[in-house]
């Protein structure tokens, strides 16, 4: 966005206010996109392996309506070089239940948990919210990996279960 800031006959406070307005309406939006977009190495991996992905600059009902999987994460402070910018955008991308009314039947909402505030609590009761099952499945996967690393077989687990 190219914008001219004319400063003649303005107080220093008015100049700062005008610059802040222009920053918030144009440049901040672009920086938000730059700070949060998918890293290039992930895009390269997807292209090399024929994995379709789509990037959007909006987070609204129209974008969500096209998704089969909606993987939510928090806006990560560590990805921002400017803490003020993080404070401006950390609450912009919040999923609310009313945003899901026109979504596909097979939509699944995933999240690595714990959440901060990126998913409203009213989404938890939606049958498309799959993050609690995701966490439970992750528990089982970690248990299986630990058993494999420790040399514990399925038969060992079954036998041990019979003792109790």
Describe what you observe in this structure:
The chain is mainly α. Among the domains are: 58-129, 3-Layer(aba) Sandwich (Rossmann fold), CATH 3.40.50; 131-164, no CATH class. The chain has helices at 12-36, 40-48, 61-65, 83-89, 131-150, 154-162, and strands at residues 69-71, 108-110. α4 links the parallel β1 (69-71) and β2.
Question: For the report, how would you describe the main beta sheet?
Answer: 2 strands, parallel
Instruction: Please report the number of helical segments.
Output: 6
Overall 3D form:
extended
Low-confidence stretches: 1-11, 14-32
Mean model confidence by pLDDT: 81
Briefly say what this structure is.
This protein is mainly α and 164 residues long. It contains six helices and two strands; from the N terminus they run H-H-H-E-H-E-H-H.
List the SSEs and their pairings.
Elements: H1 12-36, H2 40-48, H3 61-65, E1 69-71, H4 83-89, E2 108-110, H5 131-150, H6 154-162
Parallel strand pairs: 1-2
Attribute tags:
Rossmann fold; 6 helices; 2 strands
